[in-house]
């Protein structure tokens, strides 16, 4: 299960979230307008969308994390030295866990819509994804 289900779930979810970021770089879908989007997704009231370039890069990083997961799991052909892939996998784990656990501090001063979703979805999801990343990294380290 560790070699099959865990990495696949992690890669699929990271890819889906990355694709959402690509969409958000150019649109406020699935929200009805930019104000609703920024209150719900970004936690601000101003209706000013985050810069498209940054949003696109976040999407690229998430999809890169998915590809890295599959390379570390040996589901995709590997690029680069094994130790670097492992460092990258542990780095992905740390980033996701920091976002997940530190995300609760983001609620202070944020829009109520964001606070609610961050508390029940965004931060817990990041903790789960970070934990899955840790499982993949540890399993790869033991091979």
TrEMBL record:
InterPro entries: DUF3995. The chain crosses the membrane at residues 49-71, 83-101, 121-140. It comes from the Bacteria. Keywords: Membrane, Transmembrane, Transmembrane helix. This is DUF3995 domain-containing protein. It comes from Streptomyces nigrescens.
């Amino acid at each position: 299960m560790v070699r099959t289900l865990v990495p696949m779930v992690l890669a699929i979810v990271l890819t889906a979230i990355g694709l959402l970021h690509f969409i958000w770089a150019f649109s406020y879908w699935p929200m009805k307008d930019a104000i609703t989007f920024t209150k719900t997704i970004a936690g601000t009231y101003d209706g000013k969308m985050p810069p498209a370039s940054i949003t696109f890069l976040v999407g690229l990083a998430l999809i890169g994390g998915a590809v890295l997961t599959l390379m570390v799991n040996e589901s995709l052909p590997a690029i680069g030295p094994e130790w670097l892939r492992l460092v990258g996998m542990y780095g992905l784990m740390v980033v996701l866990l920091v976002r997940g656990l530190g995300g609760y501090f983001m609620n202070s001063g944020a829009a109520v819509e964001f606070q609610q979703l961050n508390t029940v979805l965004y931060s817990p999801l990041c903790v789960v994804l970070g934990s899955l990343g840790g499982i993949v990294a540890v399993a790869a380290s033991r091979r």
